[in-house]
Design a protein that fits this description.
By secondary structure, the chain is of the alpha+beta class. Helix content is 28%, strand content 14%. The protein folds into 2 domains: 123 residues, Phosphorylase Kinase, domain 1 (2-Layer Sandwich), CATH 3.30.200; 184 residues, Transferase(Phosphotransferase), domain 1.
């Protein structure tokens, strides 16, 4: 354990070093009791399932997963550049070339996920990480849904982050892959202007504006930016840019992305517009001090108090198939073994 680099509703994310190889990872630790109490068991199992087979240069990879009696552990790629949310907060907004670069890499990641009949459903600045070179990596697949091939139907759960929810989710009319392109539009709007579209601190009023209000675009936006945003933030999912049978291939030719060589981008041959300054493999300067100043072990975890709500480890364990290993560690597994 090196340092805390993130905290959520169900646990923490730590920067850790593997003793045998000295390789750095992000360790996501979730408390089973919290997951069970908040009815998030299925979402957690979905995240573990999806991370077990997705493999893309712009998605955070899972290396291992395991559990103790009280906690679940995801061993993930460490992205030293931190959260897009952190950098956007420091600058207020990004210029158009930087926003376009991040949006383009997100498009490739979402397109790949959709090709596997998965919808992501939680695109927001907090879930977009930057690696040490400045390329994006999507993380947190807890709200993903597998087996969805339609752009406008197949899923029915009311889930997501309020500012980025598509109208069809709020209308509870069923939704599909098109919700991810709405969220892309909301994220691109925020990168270019500093605030999500329809921003309002009153949640009910926010939802009403997303469902019914016309969006206004600052005069500082270029005509190309306005045009692509209007396409992505179309309330009718059947008419939204990207929601046709070609998915992302409807978005890529848009004139806003005219400068992007998509093949080179996929191969990582386009340099990011900004590269984080990182001094050494344990540098956490690109993460918020709110997290990195937290104690690794919380005071109550050091006490020898009885623990209640213990999750069983046998057949009754709701997480019994959680264990995963993507790579073979010398001396630990037999030849060709994989668990």
């Amino acid at each position: 354990m090196v340092k805390v680099i993130g905290k959520g509703s169900f646990g923490k994310v730590f920067l850790v070093k593997e003793i045998k190889t000295s390789q750095m990872f992000a360790l996501k630790v979730l408390k089973k009791d919290n997951i069970i109490k908040r009815n998030q068991v299925e979402h957690t199992k979905t995240e573990r399932s999806v991370l077990g087979y997705v493999k893309h240069p712009f998605i955070v990879g899972m290396n291992m997963a395991f559990q103790s009696r009280h906690k679940l552990y995801f061993v993930l790629d460490y992205c030293a550049g931190g959260e897009l949310f952190f950098h956007l907060g420091k600058l207020g907004k990004f210029n158009e070339p930087r926003s376009r670069f991040y949006a383009s890499e997100i498009i490739l990641a979402i397109s790949y996920v959709h090709s596997l009949d998965i919808i992501y459903r939680d695109l927001k600045p907090e879930n977009v990480l930057l690696d040490g070179s400045g390329h994006i990596r999507l993380t947190d697949f807890g709200l993903s849904k597998e087996g969805i091939s339609s752009s406008s139907s197949g899923a029915n759960s009311f889930c997501g982050t309020p500012e980025y929810l598509a109208p069809e989710i709020l209308n509870r009319q069923g939704h599909g892959a098109g919700v991810d392109w709405w969220s892309l539009g909301a994220l691109l709007y925020e990168m270019l202007t500093g605030l999500p579209p329809f921003y309002c601190q009153d949640r009910e009023r926010l939802f009403e504006k997303i469902r019914k209000s016309e969006l206004h675009y600052p005069s500082t936006l270029t005509s190309n930016a306005k045009h692509v945003l209007r396409g992505l933030l179309t309330k009718d999912p059947t008419r939204r840019l990207g929601s046709g049978p070609k998915d992302a291939d409807e978005i890529k030719p848009h004139r806003f992305f005219a400068s992007i060589d998509w093949d080179k981008l996929q191969r990582g041959e386009i340099n990011p517009p900004w590269k984080p300054t990182i001094s050494g493999d344990q540098d956490t300067s690109q993460f918020d001090d709110e997290f990195t100043t937290m104690p690794i072990f919380s005071p109550h975890s050091m006490q020898r108090a009885p623990i209640y709500g213990t999750t069983p480890m046998g057949d009754d364990n709701p997480f019994k198939d959680f264990t995963f290993q993507a790579r073979i560690l010398e001396g630990q597994l037999g030849s060709g073994a994989r668990c």
